[in-house]
Design a protein that fits this description.
It contains 23 helices and 8 strands. The protein is mostly helical. The strands form 3 sheets. The chain has a 4-stranded mixed β-sheet. Helix 2 packs parallel to helix 7, helix 7 packs antiparallel against helix 18 and helix 16 runs antiparallel to helix 19.
């Protein structure tokens, strides 16, 4: 028998093995299919309820108008720091509501992030039905997440067993980080799911190489690249996985697919992915020479950009070199988006971790974030699965298969942890979550009579995680595990989108409707959308000096704290800098540490876990003013002016 015939038989055997792993007794198969459907239905119901109750988040507002802009103007400059596919799919049903889009005007230049200005204008122009528009756009995220759950189930079943598939599905569907991000018009869950789908296709291709499988994998890889630039790491990781897949069988003397035949298929895979990327941008300026780009980042520009982004000079480190003459096989906006994202990391900004602010970030930020934001039971089973993999326990899969599970986790962690210009969002590591659940799913091996004690412990850990997650419904974005003190104390560890992204505005509106005495209201809201969209009337809280010397003379009496009702996002309470609406139609930059003086007071209520509501009396205000060196206020003085 020739080696090629032997290889074909091995391919057929591998294919048959995959098919056999999916075959179950008819009654068991029906139960499994029913269980999968029920779990996904519960998952979708949770997400739909969250989509109705949570207000638009910061990035979500920008992605919403950017997606509309892509369809209506045919340009891709708005929100260029991430590819357009996820938001374009999300806004398709929005057009059935015939929204007013005249305020969405993209800017083709590199300087302005026009999505933020347009987001607020779009919300004001469609205030009466903005929540309906938002809900319709969020439906796509629910579908993406259900697809992600099914993929985890399918791949875990192929790797280990149908029990592992069900365990992986449960871990995905009841993870608070998945639930938090899947309800949004953001690319994080679409990128996570598309990345998982592409890697799964590549894994199946290596089991049974063929041109049809290679072309399908290239198609899905291209779709994944149209969701988030982070997934560019596939082009570095997949060759390593391919070499491992070839080297390990050779070490044990098994036949392998001819090298050059497979190399041609892999090159075809890459070519198809590039074709899909270009289709996603309509081939706009594809093939533009590298030397004719205008870059903003030091990595591509080769010069230190000035402090003011709107005045940076046109720079390109490749001009005049042989590299500058090479046509780029990508749309111009794709490369411009990568450049602008790199610029943001190079510029850096202030980051927060465990009560500490600093310019830049920490290499261990995401490891710490995973430790406090993942349910403890899930952390336990993931680390347990890793340990069993390392020690070669019987439930471990083939070395190549386990590499497909754990190497993407390592790659994502290394990639994002190397970017220390700023640390704000744990969602940057969301693409590793399904692989972590795959690694943990092998623990279903213990769901058998001979291992019932271990299986019971695993079941307890999983149920504990589910209960911990559902206990804070629908506030999954603010989830922190018990070791971190729960969502009530999450801001001691992380802020920004890890706890507060403007999602709790509707809960504040409900509280204000029940407490008409809380007027006038001072509100510092962390979002690019004016709260007047939902009918909240307010002014900005008085500024608070960092020390007494910062407010002398007549300005001292206007500085906070002052008596009254106030509502502040916890980001501002912790000293964050951002824009905030002033209640008069304008947005003002809030300096770092501006509203930290509210930490001296105890909130009387909270909207969700992210908006703190205060009622400060005159004695309380004066007590704190005395501590920070400000003159006390008098009732007579207050009665002669309008109190916020």
């Amino acid at each position: 028998m020739s080696s090629l015939q032997q290889l074909n038989e091995d391919k057929d055997s591998a294919s048959a093995s995959l098919e056999q792993s999916a075959q179950l007794p008819r009654r068991t198969a029906r139960i499994v299919r029913f269980s999968v459907a029920v779990i996904l239905l519960i998952h979708a119901s949770l997400l739909l309820d969250c989509s109705r109750k949570n207000f638009v988040t910061v990035d979500e507002a920008g992605h919403l108008v950017a997606g509309i802009s892509h369809w209506t103007t045919g340009t891709y400059s708005m929100y260029r720091v991430s590819p357009p596919l996820a938001r374009m799919l999300a806004v398709v049903p929005v057009f059935l509501l015939h929204p007013d889009t005249k305020g969405i005007q993209p800017v083709l230049g590199l300087a302005e992030r026009a999505e933020w200005r347009c987001a607020n204008q779009f919300a004001l122009d469609n205030a009466a039905r903005y929540l309906d528009i938002l809900l319709v756009a969020r439906l796509a995220g629910i579908l993406w997440s259900c697809l992600g759950g099914w993929l985890v189930y399918r791949w875990a079943s192929d790797l280990y067993s149908y029990r592992a598939g069900l365990l992986g599905l449960v871990l995905w569907c009841f993870d608070p980080n998945v639930l938090a991000n899947a309800q949004m018009v953001t690319p994080d869950v679409p990128a996570t799911v598309a990345g998982l789908a592409a890697t799964y296709c590549f894994w199946r291709y290596l089991r049974c190489p063929s041109w049809s499988s290679a072309l399908l994998t290239g198609l899905v890889l291209g779709i994944a690249q149209l969701t988030k630039f982070t997934l560019l790491y596939f082009y570095a990781l997949w060759p390593l996985l391919w070499l491992l897949d070839r080297w390990i069988p050779r070490c044990v003397g098994n036949p392998i697919f001819p090298f050059w035949s497979q190399a041609r298929q892999c090159l075809g895979m890459v070519a198809v992915s590039l074709l899909v990327i270009n289709l996603g941008y309509e081939f706009q300026d594809t093939g533009k020479p590298l030397g004719k780009y205008v870059f903003t980042s030091r990595s591509f520009g080769g010069e230190e950009p000035p402090d003011v982004i709107h005045s940076f000079p046109p720079v390109n480190r490749f001009q005049g070199s042989w590299l500058g003459a090479i046509p780029v096989p990508l749309p111009a906006e794709s490369l411009a988006g990568i450049d602008r994202q790199k610029f943001d990391f190079e510029q850096g900004s202030y980051s927060y971790l465990r009560g500490q602010w600093k310019h830049g970030g920490w290499w261990y930020y995401y490891l710490y974030g995973l430790a406090v934001k993942m349910p403890l039971g899930v952390l336990a089973v993931v680390l347990w699965g890793l340990m069993l993999t390392l020690i070669g326990y019987p439930c471990r899969g083939r070395l190549v298969d386990e590499s497909f599970v754990w190497l993407p986790i390592l790659a994502v962690l290394v990639l994002v942890s190397s970017q220390t210009g700023f640390n704000h969002h744990l969602r940057y590591v969301l693409p590793l979550f399904p692989f972590a659940f795959l690694g943990a799913s092998k623990l279903a091996y213990f769901f058998s009579p001979q291992h019932w004690k271990t299986g019971l412990l695993i079941l307890v850990l999983v149920l504990w995680s589910i209960i911990s997650t559902l206990a804070i419904h629908p506030h999954y974005l603010s989830y922190f595990n018990e070791a971190a003190g729960g969502p009530e104390n999450g801001h001691d560890h992380l802020i920004d989108s890890n706890i507060d992204w403007g999602q709790d505005l509707l809960f504040l509106k409900a509280w204000l409707d029940q407490h008409p005495e809380a007027h006038p209201l001072g509100l510092a809201y962390y979002n690019v959308i004016d709260p007047r969209v939902v009918g909240i009337h307010f002014t900005l809280p008085p500024p608070g000096p960092i020390n007494a010397a910062a407010a002398q003379g007549s300005s001292a009496s206007q500085a906070g704290p002052r008596p009254g009702y106030y509502a502040l996002d916890v980001n501002f309470v912790r000293g964050s800098t951002f824009l905030a609406a002033d209640g008069q139609g304008q947005f003002h930059p809030i300096p770092l540490h501006e509203y930290e003086y509210f930490q001296h007071f105890q909130p009387i209520a909270k909207a969700g876990y992210s908006i703190f509501i205060y009622h400060i009396t005159l004695p309380e205000a004066n007590a704190v003013r005395q501590q920070i060196g400000l003159p006390p206020l008098t009732a007579k003085e207050l009665s002669s002016e309008r109190v916020p």
